[in-house]
Amino acid sequence: MGRVLLYAFLLLMAGFFLLPVYLVILTALKEPAKITLETVWQWPHPPYWESFRTAWEAFRPKFQNSVVLATSATLLSALVGSLNGYVLAKWPFRGSGLLFALILFGMFIPYQSILIPLFQFMKSIGLYGNLFGLVLVHVIYGIPIVTLIFRNYYSEIPDELVEAARIDGAGFFGIFRHVILPLSVPAFVVVAIWQFTQIWNEFLFAVTLTRPESQPITVALAQLAGGEAVKWNLPMAGAILAALPTLLVYIFLGRYFLRGLLAGSVKG
Amino acid sequence: MAKVKLEHVWKRFGKVVAVKDFNLETEDGEFVVFVGPSGCGKTTTLRMIAGLEEVSEGKIFIGDRLVNDVPPKDRDIAMVFQNYALYPHMNVYENMAFGLRLRRYPKDEIDRRVKEAARILKIEHLLNRKPRELSGGQRQRVAMGRAIVREPKVFLMDEPLSNLDAKLRVEMRAEIAKLQRRLGVTTIYVTHDQVEAMTLGHRIVVMKDGEVQQVDTPLNLYDFPANRFVAGFIGSPSMNFVRAGVEVQGERVYLVAPGFRIRANAVLGNALKPYAGKEVWLGVRPEHLGLKGYTGIPEEENVLRGEVEVAEPLGAETEIHVNVNGTVLVAKVDGHAPVKPGDKVELLADTSRLHAFDLETERTIGHSQEKVAAVR
Mind telling me which Gene3D superfamilies this protein's record contains (chain B) (predicted)? Predict the structure, then answer.
């Protein structure tokens, strides 16, 4: 009996959360003229696929930008994070604990508060407007969280492995390459999912720091929804397209995500 | 092969002194065991020799080379860790080959050495397995193998058997001894287990609170402990200690307490004379106490009277706990002696094997090794 209630409750909650998604799909498949408040919950027949084509055409260059941005920023920040984590977990130095605390502090600085100085800074170093600048911002902005994930993961790796490698003849980078990296796959998956999703979905930096030719998909999506007489089918179709990559990443890597967050143990 | 020499080596962690003025010179090919309770500094000392821990003060030599500032990889040592520290993502072969690969040995040389080590350690059939597919004993062998293939000047082993169950530990102990004899490589071995220390070490360094208590052969530690700590640490069950007054009557010296009045032999008696009228710790090992009527120890002025509290028959012998006026003494007596709790018994002490310790300094009174040897 308790179980039945539990499942009923969970189903209700899931339905509640999926309701907007359902509405997005419904609206995306309707002809613009047929989108009215009265017919909001009605299924379109026949489904109108044209919106996806139009949205895709509007998106294509920005989609490409987003792929480049999210992939390269994710890879770079994962690399930075694993090096940071490696040093903080396995090569502690005087003040490294404090440094770690300060790095984590970065997670709690609200985004919006640094936007204007960031904009001016990027302008002054000549990286405003292009995709590379945005990659750099995301890599740096991701340092706290990826450092945290990697450091905690590496703390679980016994110090003796590092010491054994030192005696075996490996140096700082040798140990990283031959011992630490091969054991880091779960942490990389966690960081990849997290960063890819964050960066792909991010809007504020993107709209502030890029010129039109290098804008990512989130900005394009906002533009699709702008203007006076909004044809709702288009932004809805666009939203589905924009959400697909992160959805796929989660579907394929999701189980590693949970495993990596929960366990991460590699005890020999 | 090489000697290892430590000269006035200190290790401080902030204000805490972990190792105090450590001095040692090993022979070539010697098996030296560091033993002591946890926190005594034995592992820290080993790690300083390995180069994993910096030396705060003093000098460490491997061979003739001062190695204080030499990184671990260039010290020509190999180390076996307590938890084996095998690389989880490499198979057994790769684990053993790793150090040689990093040193850019030719492939066939690596192959030869790994296979030879695998043969010696009987792990040839495991070469393709990952560490997680191995039992504790097998991992232990791989860890040994990883050390052997390097053909280092010195083996360092940090409690390598403490993660194994009791039976396997005894087996591997014998194998390590055999292997070390066979390879003849200078070995420094850390353990908290005095039985391991006694069975493996050519010489044993007994440590406590960062300080070396005594460096000697197993038998000398047993027969001539330098102080009360070593006396109690070496031997199982531990030596009994009881406070006793020293009574001097001309040439006769007695150790006296309620329940006994024992006459010290000539050597100990002489050493005890300065303590006339004072108290000392009397030390006697369980195996040097016998039950009257069931022991080869003759009855002289050497009787202790008390009441049996516990009797633990082990077959060949029975360990009895005897309350002698408030102090419980353990005695190993004949396995067929009819004793049960509550019995009033008389124990006979082997007066040639008595020890005495200063109450304050806890240092052994008298019996330097030479003096005793002269009397025997």
Answer: 2.40.50.100, Nucleic acid-binding proteins, P-loop containing nucleotide triphosphate hydrolases
